[in-house]
TrEMBL record:
<comment type="function">
    <text>Bifunctional glycosyltransferase with both alpha-1,3-xylosyltransferase and beta-1,3-glucuronyltransferase activities involved in the maturation of alpha-dystroglycan (DAG1) by glycosylation leading to DAG1 binding to laminin G-like domain-containing extracellular proteins with high affinity and in a phosphorylated-O-mannosyl trisaccharide dependent manner. Elongates the glucuronyl-beta-1,4-xylose-beta disaccharide primer structure by adding repeating units [-3-Xylose-alpha-1,3-GlcA-beta-1-] to produce a heteropolysaccharide. Supports the maturation of DAG1 more effectively than LARGE1.</text>
</comment>
<keyword id="KW-0511">Multifunctional enzyme</keyword>
<keyword id="KW-0333">Golgi apparatus</keyword>
<keyword id="KW-0735">Signal-anchor</keyword>
<comment type="pathway">
    <text>Protein modification; protein glycosylation.</text>
</comment>
<feature type="region of interest" description="Disordered">
    <location>
        <begin position="79"/>
        <end position="106"/>
    </location>
</feature>
<keyword id="KW-0325">Glycoprotein</keyword>
<comment type="similarity">
    <text>In the C-terminal section; belongs to the glycosyltransferase 49 family.</text>
</comment>
<dbReference type="InterPro" id="IPR029044">
    <property type="entry name" value="Nucleotide-diphossugar_trans"/>
</dbReference>
<comment type="similarity">
    <text>In the N-terminal section; belongs to the glycosyltransferase 8 family.</text>
</comment>
<keyword id="KW-0464">Manganese</keyword>
<keyword id="KW-0472">Membrane</keyword>
<dbReference type="Pfam" id="PF13896">
    <property type="entry name" value="Glyco_transf_49"/>
</dbReference>
<dbReference type="GO" id="GO:0046872">
    <property type="term" value="F:metal ion binding"/>
</dbReference>
<dbReference type="GO" id="GO:0000139">
    <property type="term" value="C:Golgi membrane"/>
</dbReference>
<dbReference type="InterPro" id="IPR002495">
    <property type="entry name" value="Glyco_trans_8"/>
</dbReference>
<dbReference type="GO" id="GO:0042285">
    <property type="term" value="F:xylosyltransferase activity"/>
</dbReference>
């Protein structure tokens, strides 16, 4: 780089000199011409000297121009440019030292082939379970924030992480980001070793004491797990944070020698030195060993395959396990044992590519300035509570990406062609067709908004074989209703599916709240699905559909978060489903709704207690004073004395809370904010000829709360109410197209109001 700058300085000085000489020549010649114009002939004796001066000056100008050309030629030889003419990231002269230690922790001049602007970079990540899936999101945010290249993420996952991450990336829709998934179960099945099995499993035969379990061995299998045409890949752990463009790391591949196949950072602890305690016997390693278990790895897959990597590591593991009996640090032990045998395989990455924030490491030697940091690795079980004199800086950097709005990362890479994405293209076309002068433009745009969705945000125990009469409580909420969760858990023992509408920062607040709650942390049958905020309206029916689609039980109880179900309702509903033979009929069971205006309520333990409170005026039928049409068809007078379920007919604006099969119609997502979101759903159930049956011994009570922002807009804005009416009319038209003459009664009922 110093050489380049010196040449640039010389070129600048030469150019300035040339400009001065040319200007002087221009002024000199101009003065002569000016003299002639004034008809003042020069002295005859002065003419020869002036001619000599002009010739000397012209000769000097030619010499300076020749020097300029030589400098330009030399400069072009040391400045490598990308395909589009702009300099790109390259491997630095001091980016790593394959033979010895690190020479510097700073990036120097480009030396190897540059990373072209539109070159596709491949990243592999092993991810299993709910917690690792959350960590991946933060990692991906940090990569996307700095990146300037298209990316292809390769995830080796279990079934849980696959479902979570596939939904997340499909809903995220980040341009120039591609995602592939590989089933980890195919790689871990079986327990016999390669010496005793004709078709042995990949890694499950290896005894492993590390807390990462079987997934801590998966990186050994990447040459087989990843596509055979993939020649190189960056392997990342889930708990790291990038502080630079990942293209800088990709460029390091250009520094590998012909024999090097793997790039690793030296271990920053003394584990492999074998002196941590008496009789400490680690696996064999080269010096301090290399960190592979939870870090950054560069793999030249094509070379590894040609070397017979699969057989190489398995033979090494078999030999060492005869004396070591098990691995202590999962695949890291096996990688190091292989490298110990053949040190030429490894390219030593500078430690700023893996600043390990755990106790008893030498991480502070990896950086001297903020600009030195490349990758921060939270590899201690203590995570953010680890001891480091700069931990506050690192913590703030990590929290920045943890709470960063992922919607802002949906940015195009200009100048790079993107692969066609039908969902994204269709959405973009629909948005372009919207009329911005339409008074209801904001409603229509909200309906088309693509929200990011993170399913199963917390630990959830999936049901292997759901009971045929089992039922899940389904609801949605935002941050201001969070306090209802613990109360609902005390009233409902069965599974719950919740869609939470939150920002990235609010999702982290919810995580801390749920983990600190004794009630919530003790429950593992509650599925929390985060739908990230975007737009000005609350997408209530989208939230309901997300919660509904991710239930496992055959039946669902469709309610709202402001209601407390009666004690024992879960068991009562299961018994009712069985007694009414609901699997053989198309029916929706109605749970009568009541409300109280008191924040402190002695909750009734039976129907008799509820009727007594109803007569005393401490309870009311739901919304009787502001919206009686919503629940009047329930026929509360009949319910008071009913002992068996009774059938009711659909009426306009009926919106009861129901128990129905999971495969019921979805909610219509055009209805956002307040108004007609449940009414439209009940209307469609009726159009599909569902029976509406009121349960005689079931009830739920609405608890008081401040009005939502959307209901306030509905009450104050005539435009809001006008758009809701427009959406209702469009819904009626769609209903008529789907159900024909059977839907005419809804339009007739609407006009008669």
């Amino acid at each position: 780089m110093l050489r380049s700058w010196r040449m640039k300085l010389k070129l600048l000085l030469a150019t300035v000199t040339l400009a001065i000489l040319l200007s002087w020549l221009y002024l000199f010649v101009g003065s002569l011409e000016y003299g002639r114009f004034l008809l003042l002939p020069p002295c005859l004796g002065e003419q020869p000297s002036r001619d000599l001066e002009r010739e000397a000056l012209a000769s000097r100008v030619r010499r300076v121009e020749e020097e300029n050309q030589q400098l330009r030629l030399q400069l072009s030889q040391v400045q490598v440019e990308g395909s589009d003419g702009s300099p790109q990231w390259g491997a630095s002269a001091e980016d790593g030292d394959p033979a010895g230690g690190e020479r510097s922790n700073r990036t120097a001049c480009p030396k190897q082939r540059m990373v072209h602007k539109c070159e596709l970079l491949h990243v592999a990540i092993v991810c299993a379970g709910h917690n690792a899936s959350r960590d991946v999101v933060t990692l991906v945010k940090s990569v996307l924030f700095h990146r300037k290249n298209p990316l292809h993420f390769h995830f080796i996952t279990d079934s849980v992480a696959h479902q979570i991450l596939q939904t997340l990336f499909q809903s995220w829709m980040v341009p120039s980001v591609h995602v592939s998934f590989y089933n980890a179960d195919d790689l871990k099945a079986g327990t016999c070793s390669p010496l005793t099995c004709p078709n042995p499993p990949e890694v499950s035969w290896i005894p492993n004491k590390h807390y990462s379990g079987i997934y801590g061995l998966m990186k050994l299998t990447l040459t087989k797990a990843l596509p055979s045409n993939l020649s190189k890949v960056i392997v990342l752990d889930t708990d790291i944070t990038f502080a630079t463009d990942i293209a800088e790391l990709w460029a390091v591949f250009g520094k590998f020698s012909d024999k090097q196949v793997i790039g690793l950072v030296e271990n920053q602890s003394d584990w492999y030195l074998g002196n941590l305690w008496k009789n400490h016997k680690p696996w064999p390693a080269l010096g301090r060993g290399f960190n592979t278990g939870e870090c950054v790895i560069l793999l030249l897959l094509d070379r590894l395959r040609r070397l017979g990597w699969e057989q190489m590591w398995k033979l090494t593991a078999e030999r060492e396990l005869m004396s070591m009996l098990s691995t202590s640090l999962a695949d890291q032990d096996i990688f190091n044992a292989v490298i110990k045998q053949d040190p030429a395989l490894v390219y030593r990455l500078p430690c700023f590519w893996n600043v390990q924030l755990s106790d008893h490491t030498r991480s502070e030697q990896c950086y001297s300035e903020v600009s030195d940091l490349k990758v921060i690795h939270w590899n201690s079980p203590k995570k953010l509570r680890v001891k480091n004199k700069h931990v506050e800086f690192f913590r703030n950097l990590y929290l920045t990406f943890l709470e960063y709005d992922g919607n802002l990362l949906r940015r195009e890479l200009f100048g790079c062609a993107s692969l066609p994405s039908p969902p994204s293209d269709q959405l973009q076309q629909a948005l372009e067709e919207l009329d911005e002068d339409d008074p209801c433009y904001d409603f229509r745009r909200q309906h088309l908004t693509q929200h990011r969705v993170h399913l199963f945000f917390l630990q959830y125990e999936f049901l292997a074989f759901p009971n045929p009469t089992d039922v899940t409580l389904v609801a949605q909420l935002s941050m201001d209703r969070l306090q209802m969760l613990e109360a609902i858990c005390k009233h409902w023992a069965g599974p719950i599916s919740l869609a939470l509408y939150m920002s990235d920062a609010e999702a982290q607040q919810f995580l801390r709240y749920a983990q600190a709650s004794e009630v919530l942390s003790a429950r593992h049958n509650i599925a929390y699905h985060i739908v990230y905020k975007e737009g000005q309206f609350y997408p209530i029916n989208l939230l309901r559909n997300v919660a509904l689609a991710n239930t496992q039980t055959p039946y669902v109880f469709l309610t709202d978060i402001d209601f407390l179900p009666m004690y024992g309702l879960y068991d009562y509903l299961r018994n009712s489903i069985q007694q009414l033979e609901l699997p053989q009929r198309k029916a929706a069971l109605i749970v009568p709704a009541f409300e109280t205006l008191h924040y402190r309520l002695t909750f009734p333990k039976s129907k008799a207690e509820l009727l007594s409170m109803l007569d005393m005026g401490s309870l009311y039928t739901f919304r009787y004073h502001v919206w009686p049409k919503g629940h009047a068809p329930t026929d509360y007078a009949k319910w008071r004395t009913a002992t068996v379920p009774y059938r009711v007919a659909w009426q306009p604006d009926f919106e009861p809370y129901i128990v129905v099969r999971r495969d019921c119609p979805k909610y219509d997502q055009r209805f956002v904010g307040f108004g007609w979101n449940k009414v439209s759903h009940i209307m469609e159930l009726d159009a599909q000829e569902y029976e509406l049956l009121v349960l005689p011994n079931a009830f739920m009570i609405h608890m008081p709360h401040a009005p939502s922002f959307d209901i306030s807009k509905f009450r104050l804005s005539a435009g809001y109410r006008g758009c809701l009416q427009t959406l209702r009319e469009e819904f009626h038209q769609d209903l008529s197209r789907r159900y024909g003459a059977a839907a005419l009664k809804y339009l007739t009922a609407e006009r008669s109001l």
